[in-house]
Amino acid sequence: MMNPNWDKLYASAFERVRANLGNAGSVLLAYNTNVDVLRYLRRDDLEERIERAGRDEVLGYSSELPEMIKSVPQLLGSILWSVRQGKAAELFVGSCRVRFYMKRWGWDEVRMGGQVGIMANLLGGVYGVPVVAHVPQLSRLQTGLFREGPIYVPKFENGELKLVHPKKFSGHGGWEEDSPIHYIYEFPRGFRVLGFEAPRENRFIASADDYNTALVIRDEFREGFDEIAAGVGLAIISGFQALTEDTYREPFGVVKEHLRVLSEREVPAHLELAFTPDETVRREILRLLPMFWSVGLNEVELASVMEVMNERDLAEKLLSSDPADADAVIEAMLKLAALGVRRIHFHTYGYYLALTAYRGEFVRDALLFAALTAATKARLGDVPSMEEVAKSLKVPVGGMAGPVEEALTKEYGMKDGIAEINGYQLAFVPTKIVERPKSTVGIGDTISSSAFVGEFALRRGTQMKRL
Ligand code: ADP
Predict the structure, then answer these.
(1) pTM for the full model?
(2) Is 349 in the pocket of ligand 1 (CB under 6 A)?
């Protein structure tokens, strides 16, 4: 039986977070911002392209993904792979010719992309929380995607560091370089092509991006970081996912230095993980983890981190049921907490958990606020305003979290979503679930940034109780 209090808890959490967002302080967001373009696949168009590129060669690439895309048949074959499996995949496009081909193929929508870009528009553009964002390439196409509001990028003017809205940056002096573009090819469940049928809706992403993939860090952030850090009260870090064994060393040197400055200035930093295929990079991220106050992840990311901690059985267990088995999730979260991270925020379809080295209802309330924002994004494909977030109070809580809540209540004596485990506080919330979501791209970033910033907004309005 689901606790009947959730509706009330949701309503009061929303009011309190909304009233306190002004206490959060400025948030530094680094490092990945790009342009997402969406193309909704059409059967006749795709089949014609496959015929023209050479059907047999394309089909050859549709059963196994290449490491990167270097030819048009590889591009079309990889899209076909996604359709056949109903799975998402993302590959780097290394050829100018293929990039040009995708540009001419065109798109249906242009959107802000990258975790930093998405979070900047949400925190600055909707919550009114000032953000300083790292935008590797400030092209007109890119800067035009920023919302109005307290969103800033640092800019050198006569040797001095100034903060300006990205639209006012105009630092390219007439020379318009290529924007980092992620081409997202979406298809619905049941999409048919060449006799294949997609078992579920999903997307294939071809990234024509030389900036975020290599974690290019701008000069303003290399030379002026101390000054940038002095002006913020929180930091959210993301964008390591496309690095490889060959490319991570140089940028990680800079990242470490940035984390050192942030911790010296006592700016709590949150690491927003994304699935990182390279195991060496994943191991290095794990090494950085103790420098973070907080980390946010989903079940796939948690399992992938357990793998490099040599917890393969646990990793497997995390992925073997839907929703993820809470006991396995908590076991894995405790292992991360033991590394010294003070806050671990896990999200999955149906519920969120936060394991913290401190106590307080504000942790749970921030999760509830995040779930409202997530439901808004699922409903509308975007979070346009606080009024729309408020409307998500009407979305019902999903039933799949019921058994999880029951088990946590029995095992740990959880009450209203709060329990104590091994000296940590565990906060649990069942999430609102939108039956027919408009889009689910980037919901993870929305959840994590809302919960982290929401928590500090509440915390800075009240007194923090340490365990
Ligand atoms: P992404 O990488 O696209 O951000 P994640 O897996 O990190 O994806 O986050 C997706 C999260 O979105 C899920 O964990 C779930 O909590 C939430 N979510 C997905 N679909 C819905 C839905 N229909 N209604 C509410 N929340 C959803």
Answers:
(1) 0.94
(2) yes
Identify the residue whose C-alpha is closest to ligand 1 atom 5.
444
Q: Catalytic annotation on 445? A: yes
Please report the beta strands in 194-348, taking only residues with DSSP state E, as ranges in sequence order. Answer: 196-197, 202-208, 234-237, 269-272, 294-297, 343-348
Q: Does 442 sit in the ligand 1 pocket, CB within 6 Å?
A: yes
Report the distance separating Cα 413 and Cα 408, nearest Å. 7
411-451 pLDDT per residue, tens? 999 999 999 999 999 999 999 999 988 877 789 999 999 99
- Element holding 337 (H helix, E strand): helix 326-337
Query: By the 8 A CB rule, do 235 and 30 touch?
Result: yes
Per residue in 259-309, pLDDT tens? 999 999 999 999 999 989 899 999 999 999 999 999 999 999 999 999 999
What's the CA-to-centroid distance between 448 and ligand 1, angstroms?
11
- In the chain, where the domains are located: 6-33+114-140+212-466, 36-112+178-208
Substitution candidate for ligand 1 out of 118, 203, 349 with most atoms within 8 A of CB: 349
Asked if residue 434 has its Cβ within 6 Å of ligand 1, the reply is yes
- Residue 381 has, within 13 A of its CA and on its CB side, a CA count of 6
Annotated active-site residue in 36, 365, 382, 445? 445
Tell which CATH architecture fits domain 36-112+178-208.
2-Layer Sandwich (3.30)
Neighbours of 206 (CB within 10 A): 25
The Cα 226–Cα 230 span in angstroms is: 6
Q: Which CATH number fits domain 6-33+114-140+212-466: 3.40.50.720, 3.40.50.10490, 2.60.120.430, 3.40.1190.20?
A: 3.40.1190.20
